[in-house]
Structure formats: C-alpha cells, structure tokens
Specification:
4 strands; rod-shaped; single chain; Double Stranded RNA Binding Domain; 3 helices; 124 residues; 4-stranded mixed β-sheet
Amino acid sequence: MKVSCQFKSLQWSDALVDYTEEKLQKVKKFELKPIQVHVTYSAERHRKSVEMHIVGRDVSISGRAYGESFNEAVDRVVGKLTRQLSKRKQKIKDHKSIEQSRYGKLDRLNAQMEVVTPEVKKAG
C-alpha cells in the first residue's frame, strides 16, 4: 500500500502520518491490489479535516471527515472508507454467488415445482 500525504496550511507531522498508516491497516483486509491512498490534512480555525482517496485496480473510493483533532478525523474517515469497502465487497460477493442470481432462483423454483405434461391424443 502506497500512502501519499499532503498538508494544507500545516507543518509536516511524522507522528500524524504514522498514526494514519497504522489506522489504514484496517483497509488491508479487503485485499485491494495494487492500492494507493492519497491523504490531505487541513485545518480551518478550530475544525480539522482529513480527506482520503483510495485508488485500486477496480475501485476508487473517497471520504472526508472533520473533528476536533486530526486523530479523531482520521478515525472517522477510516471508518467511513471501511464501511464503503465492506458494502462494495458484499455486493460483489452476492453478485458472484449463483444462488443469489436470477438463474439460481429459477433453478430452485423449478426443483420445487412438479411438472405435469398433458397427454396428446392422436387424430385418426
């Protein structure tokens, strides 16, 4: 995972970057390869904001969170991104399983139904 950080109107903080990388370990369980994370930290008066963009081979997800401190904002945005990724993973999982598709539902319905064919009388 490649993490690039940008600080707007702030000084660079190695402790904050390390904290962010530690929290981003939660994202690794979604097995996105290759993955790049762009993080932007900014401060507006008393409100701190963190914006993250996760870019993978077939996914692009972003989130922004505000907080009293940067650590709180990082926790919130990682939570948002984790929810988005888990929702995406569940959709893919449901889409790939044949039981959830319409063909799987038809197969189950056909197995439950009894097929009765009427007899055809020949003329003659």
